[in-house]
Every structure is written in C-alpha cells, then in structure tokens.
Design goal:
By secondary structure, the chain is an all-alpha fold. The chain has a single domain (21-34, 46-326), classed as ABC transporter involved in vitamin B12 uptake, BtuC (Orthogonal Bundle). 77% of the residues lie in helices and 2% in strands. A two-stranded antiparallel sheet has the order 1-4. A two-stranded antiparallel sheet has the order 2-3. A hairpin with a 2-residue loop joins strand 2 and strand 3 (173-174). Helix 12 crosses helix 13 (276-295). The radius of gyration is 20 Å and the shape is globular. The protein starts with a helix and ends with a helix.
C-alpha cells in the first residue's frame, strides 16, 4: 500500500513539476484568451458579462468537483447531463406541490444521489464498465424525464428563496459562485489532506494493491459516484432556478463539458492522477471560450465543437504522459 500512495521522492517531484507545468500552461492560456477576446470585444470585461461567465462556470465546477474525484478512481459518469435535467424537473414539481424550498431541494438531492448510487452499484457489484453503465443510465434518464413530464415544469410557486438560488447574491458574489466555491473547497481538502483522498488516488493508481491492503475499493468508488450524483442535484436546482422552470432538455451535452474540463485540467482517465485546481482552470478556459464565441457573434454550434476537440487532445496528451512515466 505504501508503494502506491507514497511513491519515491524523485517520482513525487517529477509528478509535481509535471502537474505544475500543466496548470501554468492553462493559466497562461486563460490569460491570453481573456486578452484576445477583450481586444476584439471590449464588452467582455463588463460587469454583467463577467457575472454571466461566473454563473456558468459555477454550474460546471460544482459537478466537475465530484467528477474529478470519480475519474481519479478510474471511473466516469456520462449520465450527469441527463440527471441534471431530470433533477431540475423533479425539484420544480415538488416545489410546486409543496411550496417548500427545503422539500424541493431534498427531493432533487435524493433523486440525483440515487442515480449516483445505482451507477455505483452497477459498476462495483455487477462489474459493468462505467462507460457502458452510465451510457445506459443516460438513455434511461433521457427517456424517463419525458415519461415524467412531456413539457417544461413551469414555476407556479413564486418563492423568493428559489429565485435567489440561481439569481441571488451574497454581498457582491452571485450565490451559485458561493455554492461552487464551498463544494470545491470541501472536495479539495478531502483529496489533498485526508486519508479518504489518499485512498481515492490509490484506487485509481493500483486497485489491486489497495485490495491486498484490506481497503474496500468498491466502497470508495461507490462513494465517488454518490458524491458526483449529489453535486448534480445541487447544480440541477440552481439551473432550474436560473431558467425558472424544469426543462427536460436542459442537460444536453453538459456531461461533455464537465468531462472536458476535468481532463483538460490534467486528471487522467486512467485514474490515480488529478488536480481540482487544474479542473477549475479547465472550467474557466472552456467557459471563457464559450462566452467569446457568443460576444464575437460566431456560430454558436462551435460551443459543441470545442469540448470535443478538448477531450481528444487532452486524452492524447494523457497517453503521452503515461508512456513517458512508464519509461
């Protein structure tokens, strides 16, 4: 176990330098993007535009924080987009029926957490590959949300607390940004400073060694799936608040953006390596590009093209890094 979680000093230093260089490149890329877009469109730095970018980043970062933990364990969840839409519809329906924000939030969290639990059980107990398992779940959720409601679940309660969930402020900061910052901080502390975090990295790096040490790798993966699901529940309610409705189509392609941000941030699809700070930079880069496409008046279909390119390029670079480490 010690060989897995505490590699030799030289390897730790090399890994730290590599990770640091990746984050430096992302930071420089982000700065250059902001400069280039602001030169072409000065309104990029307007207060309203910056707040819009932060709100969009917050939604992705909330789910990406959980997804980073999951991918570190060498698993992935492609159902988060479909779950996001279904969660928003369920939360809105419960709010309309009960006029209680607490019950609506609990219903959304319970549903999204249950989706994560089922995904985790299928992967850990039935031994189905997580890619296949979560594609199956994605298809069931995409069809299931239309069995639940054929159209958007409109807001019939007019609760001020619900509106504030997506559009409110805590001082100068939008509330979604506060939620994202808290979730990000908790996930970062967990991965960096706790035994649980070290075990999550160890499971992704060498699951067999973790099993031989007596640690239940299945439980750790199940935990990561459930955490990812709960993050989707929070993001789903924030999104439905911003849209003032539960939209069955709201989460289309959301999973691609989340996974692209995580991989771009340096987290390996093979598991055992990753950084939440890198994920944060990945989210910022992707959302700044999206915003630039809009304010520059380019074809908005490019917003779908960029995550695809990022996933292919970042995965290739991860393969190169893995081969270099093996040598």
């Amino acid at each position: 176990m010690s060989d897995t979680t505490h590699p030799p000093t030289s390897r730790r230093l090399a890994g730290g330098q590599l990770l640091g260089s990746e984050q430096l490149v992302l930071g420089v890329t982000l700065a250059l993007l902001c400069i280039a877009i602001s030169i072409a469109a000065p309104q990029f730095y307007s207060e309203a535009n910056i707040i819009a970018i932060l709100r969009q980043c917050a939604l992705v970062l909330i789910v990406a924080s959980g997804m980073t933990m999951l991918i570190i364990t060498a698993e992935v969840d492609l159902s988060v987009g479909a779950s996001l839409a279904f969660t928003g519809c369920i939360g809105m329906a419960v709010l309309n029926a009960t006029h209680s924000l607490s019950l609506g939030m609990l219903a959304a969290l319970a549903f999204a957490g249950a989706v994560g639990l089922v995904n985790g059980l299928v992967v850990t107990r039935l031994k189905v590959n997580s890619l296949i398992a979560t594609i199956g779940m994605m298809m069931m959720l995409q069809g299931g949300v239309y069995l639940f409601t054929r159209e958007a679940v409109q807001n019939h309660h007019q609760l001020a607390g619900f509106t504030d969930l997506g559009a409110g402020y805590a001082g100068p900061s939008p509330l979604p940004v506060i939620f994202a910052a808290v979730i990000f901080a908790v996930a970062w502390v967990t991965l960096r400073f706790t035994t649980l975090g070290r075990y999550l990295y160890a499971v992704g790096a060498n699951e067999k060694a973790v099993r031989l040490s007596g640690v239940r790798a299945e439980r750790l993966k199940l935990f990561a799936f459930i955490v990812t699901g709960l993050c989707v529940g929070i993001a789903g309610m924030i999104l439905s608040s911003l849209m003032n409705a539960g939209q069955p189509t709201a989460g289309r392609s959301f999973e691609l953006t989340v996974i692209a941000a995580v991989i771009l941030g340096g987290t390996s699809l093979l598991g055992g390596r990753g950084s939440l700070f890198g994920t944060l930079l990945g989210v910022l880069v992707l959302k700044v590009i999206d915003n630039g496409i809009i304010i520059l008046g380019w074809n908005q279909d490019l917003q779908m093209v960029v995550p695809g390119i990022v996933i292919i390029l970042a995965t290739y670079l991860d393969i190169v890094r893995t081969r270099a480490n093996a040598r």
